[in-house]
Amino acid sequence: QVQLVESGGGLVQAGGSLRLSCAFSGIIFSIYTMGWYRQAPGKQREWVASITAGGTADYADSVKGRFTISRDYAKKMVYLQMNSLKPEDTAIYYCTTSNYWGQGTQVTVSS
User: Fold this and answer.
1) Contact 5, 22 (CB under 8 A)
2) CB within 8 Å of 69: residues ≥ 6 apart
3) Which end of the chain is more exposed for a tag (fewer CB within 10 A), N or C?
4) How far apart are CA 92 and CA 77, in angstroms?
5) 48-98 confidence digits (pLDDT tens)
């Protein structure tokens, strides 16, 4: 059974930082691309960042230079370090791989 469990969301002031974590189980973690998406109220879910099996990362323009995605193969974890947060980063953040999704974690950035 594949499970993805996010954690690390919360309330932070603009300019602050948060680190999201996603724990994976039930899959061969090392061979898949992992990604983060987010969905703000009233908006469609949008891609934020992804990291390949080989560790190559890619980012949406809106977060490039502020967010960093990483993965720990031994722990089967993927992280999203979010710095210089803005109110427009407020959303539910989801991790995903191979059409599996976690339940999401809320990130709220106050101005």
Assistant:
1) yes
2) 34, 36, 49, 50, 51, 57, 59, 78, 79, 80, 81
3) N
4) 19
5) 999 999 999 999 999 999 999 999 999 999 999 999 999 999 999 999 998
Neighbours of 73 (CB within 10 A): 10
Q: How far apart are CA 37 and CA 11, in angstroms?
A: 18
Record the tokens describing residue 8, joined without a space: 């690390």
Which of 86, 100, 68, 80 minimizes the C-alpha distance to 19? 80
Comparing CA positions, the residue from 19, 34, 105, 8 lying closest to residue 66 is 19
Q: Nearest-CA neighbor of 20 among 111, 96, 73? A: 96
Q: How far apart are CA 62 and CA 7, in angstroms?
A: 22
Task: Give the total residue count for the chain.
Answer: 111
- Maximum CA extent, the chain: 40
Q: Which amino acid is at 50?
A: S
What does the block give as tokens for 98?
Answer: 């191979």
**Edge-to-edge order in the sheet of strand 18-25:** 3-7, 18-25, 77-82, 67-72
